[in-house]
Amino acid sequence: MTTITVAQKEEEQPFIISEDVVINKYHSQDELENMQKGQLMVLYNRRIEVLIKILPNIAFTSKPGITMSSMGIPYNKENRNALKDNIDAATTYFKNTLEFQEIVLPYSDKDNLISAILFYEETLKALHTYDDFK
């Protein structure tokens, strides 16, 4: 008699906030003032992307790389589908926002871009201390 054992590979869970949703560098006003407008537009859009993907999820986590199971949330079909829908919605929203920004952002004032980047960066820094409010 031969016994065949089939092991199911456990499905790898997606992260609530993707691991690539990070800002590698924060800037001073002087650094930003020395950049070209095109560079500022790239920074501006990246900060929007990170905010779009983090802010709706801070009731769960403000850190990338966290799964539902690691938060104690059952990884069942309903929750898995809800997470997929949430990720898809954020991706679509950012894509649409980026398309709009590519058209109108070149008309923005450089000083306004700098102010917005600094504001977004301060908001993102505040997320690092979010757990202090728990």
Describe this structure as you would to a colleague.
With 134 residues, this protein is an all-alpha fold. The chain has four helices and no strands. The longest helix is centred in the C-terminal third of the chain and has 28 residues, at 77-104. The protein starts with 28 loop residues before the first helix and ends in a 7-residue tail after the last helix. The relative contact order is 0.18. The model has no long low-confidence stretch (mean pLDDT 90).
Task: Indicate the percent of residues in helices.
Answer: 40-55%
Proportion of beta-strand residues:
under 5%
Treating each run of at least 4 consecutive H or I residues as one helix, how many helices? Answer: 4
| Anisotropy-based shape | globular
Mean pLDDT: 90
Short summary of the structure?
This protein is mostly helical.
What's the helix and strand layout?
Elements: H1 29-33, H2 37-54, H3 77-104, H4 110-127
Which structural traits does this protein have?
mainly alpha, 134 residues
